[in-house]
Each structure stands twice: as C-alpha cells, then as structure tokens.
Amino acid sequence: MAQATTRLTMAQAVVRWLTQQFTEIEGARVPLFAGVFGIFGHGNVTCLSEALEAVQDRLPTWRGQNEQSMALAAIGFAKAKRRRQIMVAASSIGPGALNMVTAAGTAHANRLPVLLLAGDSFASRLPDPVLQQVEHFGDPSLTVNDAFKAVTRYWDRIVHPAQILSSLPQAVAAMLDPADCGPAFLGLPQDTQEIAFDYPEVFFEPRLWTIPRPRPDRAALGRAAALLQTAQKPLLIAGGGVRYSLAEAAVAAFAEQRGIPIAETIAGKGGLTHDHPAHAGPIGILGSTSANALAAEADVILAVGTRLQDFTTGSWTVFRPEAQFISINTARFDAVKHRALAVVGDALETVTELDAALGTWRADPAHMARARALFGEWDALLDRLQAPSNTPVPTYAQVVHVVNRAAGERDTLISAAGGLPGEVAKGWRVKAPNTFDLEFGFSCMGYEIAAGWGHAMANAGPGGLGGTPIVMLGDGTYMMMNSDIYSSVLSGHKMIVVVCDNGGFAVINRLQQAKGVPGFNNLLTDCRVRDRAAPLHVDFTAHAAAMGAEARHCESLADLAAGLEWAKSNERTTVLSITTDAFAWAPGDADWDVGVPEVSPRESVRAARRHQEEIRAKRRIGV
Fold this sequence. Notes:
37% of the residues lie in helices and 17% in strands. Helix 8 crosses helix 14 and helix 16 crosses helix 17. Helix 13 (332-335) links the parallel strand 16 and strand 17. Strands 5-4-6-7-9-8 form a six-stranded parallel sheet, with helices on both faces. A six-stranded parallel sheet has the order 14-13-12-15-16-17, sandwiched between helices. A six-stranded parallel sheet has the order 19-18-20-21-23-22, sandwiched between helices. The protein is α/β, with parallel strands linked by helices.
C-alpha cells in the first residue's frame, strides 16, 4: 500500500510540523514551540507568513521591532523555561537575517536554544541578483546566511522541499541535546518556500520530545569520588548547567550534607537563595571576597555545569596552581578543560551518583564554618555599600539594594552588559530559585529589555514563575536597544525597567583609565560633541512614554522606592530612570587578563603593562 501523503508548500510543511512537536513541563504536555517572533519582509512575507497566519491560534506570531531584539527575546524566554520550551525567530533575507547574527552568538555562547528561520535568495538563481542579495564573485552559493555558521549549533539551507524531512528533527535534537544545546538555523530560499511537495502524513504526527539525562562513566565517577575524598578544603562551583539540569535542590543538598561550600558562576547565580547554608557567594571577577578566598585555599574544586569562563576563574588567577579540578558536564568539550578529571554526564544524575559513591565521607566541619564566617563578612560589606549616604548621586550598589528590596519573591531580575552585571552579581540577594538572569556569556548589550519581554511571556505560560520581570540597565545599553518596550506594551506583557543614567559607558571608561588611557569616547563628557554647553542627557522617561509605557524619573533612592511600588501597581510596562554615580563601584578582588600595549609613550600605560605582567605570572596554566 502506498504511503499516505499530503501536498503542502515547503513553508506550510515547516509550520505544520512545528505545531505538532510537544514536550512536558511539570507533568503537563505543552507545545515545544511556544510561538514565533517575526518581522516579515521580502523573502518570508509571501510564503512563510501565509503559513503562519493559518495556525496563529496554535502557534502565535508576535511582531518584533528589530530582528536582533526579537531573537534576544526568544533567548530570554528559553532561559526562563530552563531550555524546556523554544521560541522561533523569523526574518526576511539580507539585513533582516544578519540582524539576528548577534543574537545567535548570544545563544551559542550561553548554550541556549532558539530556532532561527531566515529567508534566502533564490535557490534557482534565475532572477539573480535579487533585492538585498550580497553576491560573491567566486562562490555563487554563498549568501549572508552563511554568517550563521560561526554562531549556531545546527545550520542548513533548504534547497529542496524534501530536505526538511531530515533537517527539522535534527535541528530540534541539537537544540534539546544538553551537551550540544544552542541555536539552530534554517535558511529558506524564497523559491523553495513556494514549492509544493507530497509529504508523508506520518511526518506530521504529534511527537513528544524529552531531554536526555546522560549518566556518567562508572570508572570516571569512581576516580572523582576518590579524589574528592582526599580534599581538605573542597569547593563546589555551580554553573548554569545546574539550573538547566533542574539540579539546584540536589546540588544544594549534596553540598550541605557533605560540608562543601558552593560558589556560583554568573550563569549559575540564582540556583541557590542568598541565605542557603552552603552558599558562599559568587566567584571570580564579578564575585565575592568570600568565594574568592575559598577558591584561593581550595585543594579540590568540583565544577558542576560550568565552562569556566575567565570571569569565573579570574583569568585562572583565583586558584592555587596545584589545585585539582573535577568537572561534571554534559559537554565533553567543557569537562576536559584545564587538566580536569572529566566526568561527562547530566548534573542531576551525576551528582546523585557521586553522592552515593562517597559513602560516609564528609569534609571537616571547620571548613564550612570558615565559609559561613567569610560569607557573613561579605554580607556585612554589602550592607555597608548599599546603605543610604549623604552623597548627592546614588551609587549602583544603593540602587540595586532598593530594587532588590522592592522585588517580589517571584519577580526575576534581568541584566547584561555594562556596569550593572558586577553590581547585581555581587549585590543582588536572590530570594527564590531561578529569579536571576544575568547574560554575561556573551555580554550582549541590548539583551536586557528584549529578554524582559521574553521572560514576561514565559512567566505567564506553563511552569512560569508568574512574577514580573525587572530589567536593570544603563543609559548606554538603553540607547542601543529599547524598542521592545513598545513590543511589550503592544502585546500586553508587563515588565519594570530601571534605567541607571551615569552619562555613557561608565564601566568601560573605568577599565580604560585603569589601564592608563585617559577617558576617551566612553562618557558623554569625553566624546566629540558639537556643543558642550547643550544638554547631553536623554529624557528616558519621555522616550519610554512615547512608546506607550508608564514612566517616571526618580530624584533619590526614596523616590525610586516609591516609584517601584507605583510600577508594581501598574498594568503595563513601566520605566523608571535615576541618575547614578559613574565612578563608584562595588569592590572586586579578582584579576582579569586583558591586552595592554607592550610599548607606549605614556608612563600610565607602561605602569599598567607592568601590572598586567604581574597578573599573568599568577595564572594557573591549563590546556
């Protein structure tokens, strides 16, 4: 008997297949693809939009304002869902597609799933060159969409309608593979989208996807248990993989029962509440004095679900050269880094099995007591930094404290690039698990507001926290990408946005001057301007109000506290702005390896170079 088929265009088949993919969240069966962020144009408006319009009740399409920001919103959604549910971002060809490359890099660096569908030029090449096509004289097969190859886990160009039969399942498998998770890209040539094909009906049968939990190799697990049992001063570093494995409770219980302090990476922060008994604080360049002191003493470091980025390791200066690492990670690439004893496996399963393999072993209770004392000192330092003062301009630390105090238990803090990451990583006291999103894997300016929109969508759906996203960002990042304030007003997804106006790119000005270069082109006062007598600041509240948001400028910390209460009572997105100090920062005690000129006529630069060489001399060299 011939196999039953149904005749659809390639674009119609892609969309129909997407609607038939499902997953489970907290026992409930839900669509794997929760929706589409789309901007239609030449290359996707005639075919893909026709297909999406027909299923908008099952696969809702949300109109973005910029292709990059809508893909960033999809990333924020995936983070909030802890990689259990995926959004699609769809663009036209040419500049629309290229706008998504930065977002693809953000998803790739952070190991987060998003399905990117970009229009492409004609596969037949008959009308070449078409509008927005970039021609390569020596390679006519090359289009702008090839740029995604560097920043995606799965890449394909569909030049025949039958190719989606194999490509779509492979794209989903890559996005849901905990070891290979990241963005998937499909280039859809506009003539291929229109072609009808007799697709097997079985291709469109509903499919339930589950995320695998690979178990560790028994021999590797045994070696890890034996090494950990020799530790006198062990330290556990919890990364983002702990959260994506849903292993927070298991890791926290393991650390508490075994007497091992937990330090959190930037991606891992939020797995523990601030006051958890095993919590030792954030580690590294944006870390705490408590976690960094423990790292400097540690003889065995158990790294769980972390790729050990330089901001975690202080460019490999925060650990003793002789310290030994056990790395638990689903990705072999990450597990074997820096001479670690690699245990490749899911965080939840591996930590559970490691706990069983340890028998009655427990670290010396004095070690955890010291960790608690160090963390208490760090907490007291935060209290002093965040306390109100008589200074005319509030510091970031003070502003973070006011927002933190006003946040509800289920409200999620969202931040990314600039000066705020260091301040919230150090100073935000997490009240409930998974209410903290600091994008610093790619440090993508412009992530914040877009991700806030994605979090608001995720919070309202199955398994969502139900709270309000609170976005904190600087004036420089606001100027870079703010249009999803308007998106959130249009769609009815509320967030609270706090804009800290410190007059430019203040934290990079700090780094510039710390390495001997005079302030140049970062703060507005150091930029080339036409008239220095004219006001340099932007009225952020007027701008946000023009996009339909509620908005208020706050003159003081007390005014900010009142503004936050007002914002929480509003039904729509609310933007609060406050002037903040460009030169006051929460202290850090970890080093960072950056490039400093080897020769310079400036003594300040030469001094910075000498200091940089001292930093490099302290590095723990690994391969």
